[in-house]
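Homework help board

Subject: predicted structure for assignment chain

Our instructor gave us this sequence and asked us to write out the predicted structure in token form, then describe one feature. I got the tokens but I'm not sure how to describe them. Can anyone check?
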Amino acid sequence: METPTPYCTPSPSVSVRLGDAQQSVLPEEVSHKTEQALRDGKLLPVISLAREAAKPVSAKPLIIAVTGDSGNGMSSFINALRGVGHEEQASAPTGVVRTTQTPAGYSTPRFPDVELWDLPGLGVTSQSMESYVEEMRFSQYDFFIIIASEQFSTNHSKLAQTIQRMGKKFYVVWTKLDRDLSTSVLPEARLLQTIRENIQENLQKEGVQEAPIFLVCNFAPSSHDFPKLRDTLKKELPALRLSGPLEALVQLCEKVIGEEEAVLQERTKHEHFEDALGIRNADDLEEVLEAYRLRFGVDNESLHHVAQCLKKSIFEYQGVMKYPDLHTACSRNWKLKSMTCLLMRGLLGLSWYVPGMGAPVVAFFRRLQYRCILRLVVQDTKTIVRKILNDSIFPA
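My token output:
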């Protein structure tokens, strides 16, 4: 039997403890320096900044919210995961009526770096998803376990969608499997498959990415998917704990990269734009591509330094690029392909025979090519930056 920690038993102090939960907000200094590095086209400083953001989070417990519709067995699930009987003093209160009215926190020696928070079921304290998420302060949790039973409702799908939009991860746990098995006429294997397929279909309808699904019985924590759930949670704890700062950094970086793209797109309207990028031959699109890559810090030399710092091969970063050179870019992007084909070049050549049209037409068309190439480089930059952040926070 486990010994309860001071905040295991629900009390007025529990809601105070929640205020200490890790938030995904980055330290202001880290955010500022990361933005500046990206605007300067220097990805090397991002490595140390990512590690700096992850360091304080590594020392804190993972804050897991257990949520779902009221009556789905959330409190019973928490007791089963902790290995606590329902009659014990340290257990979460359970019953056939609503028993959880306010968020209550629990710990367990089985997961020493984890705090489990039993949230009131959706519909207990609010009438809409928006107000529920606000009242339960979803932003304060690192990870979510969505509990369902009997049916995977619209509420469950909306919860999953909301969590995904926050850039956070979740499991789906189907409880009361013993009841399903005792009442269904389907063979066990077929019933389990049907439940999983139903959950996946409902998540897909809301545009939610596939998530781990576990089918359990709260009163038989050694059967069905319960052992797999415990093992998976233990295995993924380091990644789950650091997913908050990782996603916050990814969102920040993508925002800054998008802003820099907008600035460069606007500048293509001005004369002598090529000079600002150091482009000597305005018609050499390969040179334009390399100039943009250099501007965002994803040129080969910069990637070589990044790979050295992370003790990786440069090919790991070059390999995630979708448009590493002009030939590949033209073959994979129909817009660029159409703008560089022989027919289009022939039409541009003919424009010079129309008085006053040659130079303006070519300049306009060149801007379209530049913008298209810029968009492709930005896509690759975002992919590379995500990998750099991931490799910085989760070194092999």
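Reply (TA_rk): Your tokens look well-formed. For the description, you could write something like this. The beta strands are 62-68, 104-108, 111-118, 143-148, 169-174, 213-215. That's the kind of observation they're looking for.
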